[in-house]
Amino acid sequence: MNQDKIKYIIEAALMVSDKPMSVAQIEALFVKDMEEVDRELIKAALEALQADYRDRGIELREVASGYRVQVRNEYADWVNRIFEERPPRYSRALLETLAIIAYRQPVTRAEIEDIRGVGISSTIIKTLQEREWIRVVGHKDLPGHPELLATTREFLDYFNLKKLSDLPSLVEIRELTRLNPDLFDTLENMENTGAPGQTAETALEETRDEQEEQDMTITVDDKVVPISS
Q1: Residues sharing a CB contact under 8 Å with residue 189, sequence separation 6 or more, in sequence order
Q2: What is the per-residue pLDDT for 200?
Q3: CATH at 78
Q4: Is 98 left (phi over 0), alpha (psi -120 to 50) or beta?
Q5: Which residues have C-beta within 8 Å of that of residue 195, sequence separation ≥ 6?
Q6: Contacts of 45 (CB under 8 A, 6+ apart)
Q7: End position of a domain, from candidates 26, 49, 82
């Protein structure tokens, strides 16, 4: 099978898929073919597609779950006119809660409330879970065994991120939004809260590993706790 045909098959599959496709899922397209299509050929085809779309209204983007064809951001306003339903608008409280979970994960609800300085509505947590942006990844070894919350691959996919280290810095977010500046001051110094010795950088590193594997562990109060995805 020549390289152009491999590229066109992958392009067609990505066009009809409603979710990002991983390299493994793309490989599965060719399992019944007599000619072997290895991973290197697939990656070469993906790179060729990215080059083909470089000056187009669409792009081939790699996110946490794999590859997808999507509209470029600069053309989104026009494309959105096709749809009658307006994109959802989220409250400041929801966005602040999501920001804390993203940068401080894994984190309990009480820790989120401590950072924000106010209570969190159960509706906010429910909405984030229904959007599949956050999930419970374990329980902290404290009275009541509170749930530990972390972001998901769907969260990364939605925000066009491949991994957690692609998140913008807190300074960048504070400059681009009107969210509570005191919240970000707190997040930037969050080694003073939560697990001893855990900084924002180490929290991101630990959770990045958690999201890249099926069977994972996290460290909670110096204990290694298994997690099932």
Answers
A1: none
A2: 40
A3: 1.10.10.10
A4: alpha
A5: 219, 220, 221
A6: 3, 6, 7, 10
A7: 82
- Enter the DSSP assignment of 134: E
| Per-residue tokens: 155 | 């969260």
| 193-213 per-position pLDDT tens digit | 444 334 344 444 444 444 444
Q: Same domain for 101 and 152?
A: yes
Are 113 and 177 within one domain?
Answer: yes
Q: Write b or e for each residue in 92-105: b if 16 or more Cβ atoms lie within 10 A of its Cβ, otherwise e.
A: ebbebbbbbbbbbb
For 146-187, what is each residue's pLDDT tens digit?
999 999 999 999 999 999 889 887 666 666 555 566 665 666
What is the pTM assigned to this prediction? Answer: 0.69
User: Rounded distance, CA 136 to CA 123, Å?
Assistant: 16
Which range of residues forms the domain containing residue 60? 3-82
Residue position matching structure tokens 């204990």: 223
**Could you tell me if 129 and 210 lie in one domain?**
yes
Beta strands in the chain (DSSP E): 58-63, 66-71, 134-139, 147-151, 215-220, 223-228
In this structure, the answer to whether residues 189 and 101 fall within a common structural domain is: yes
